[in-house]
Known about the structure:
Layout: H1 8-26, E1 31-32, H2 34-41, H3 45-53, E2 59-60, E3 64-66, H4 67-78, E4 84-89, H5 93-105, E5 109-116, E6 125-126, E7 129-133, H6 137-143, E8 148-151, H7 155-167, E9 172-175, E10 188-191, H8 194-218
Amino acid sequence: MSRKKAPKSVIKRLPVYLRILDNLIRRDVEVISSRGLSDETGFTAEQIRKDLAYFGAFGTRGTGYNTSYLRDKLMRIIGLDKKTRLVIVGAGYLGKALTRYNVLKNPYVDIVGVFDANPQEVGSEIEGIKIQSIEDIPEVLNKQNVKVAMITVPAEAAQKVVDSLISLGITAILNFAPTKLIVPRKVQVHNADLTIELQSLIYYVMEEEKEEKESRIQK
């Protein structure tokens, strides 16, 4: 019998579990219960057990999960047991920050190219990675087996860049451009709009301030 396919919401939680397990292993924690994982992640113990059950049985009843064993299994499930090659298109402030972070802090990826349309940026380096002209993308992708791209280009340039990347074999895109992209069904796009996230956060701050003001008035 084939295993039930995990929903996207579950897939998005797996990297959270992996990050927690990395931290636990650094703290020399060898075994943790689902309740302990709940305390670390904020998800319920039941939710965690259900999520992991999509992929197999990894824990021991009454004991919990061996952190190193579960980490290794999650890495294989996600596809992080080998480095994933990716390119970054757009070497402005955000593109440079993402490149620097992934080179220094993300051991699961290998950035094989950073590209920008600005001639003044081309030739400079970010943590040893030379910024190349956006015109060099086809040559690099033809030589490298790359399926993943991050784009941090202006909104008006995003669709053209994405169309070109897809024609060259890119099938997964992390989009930081503040615009909706039109892509074939086989291509996965995750949008990371920092402005929307910040504005949503501000809403909650304003709501809290309103509640505090109303509370003072009632007193």
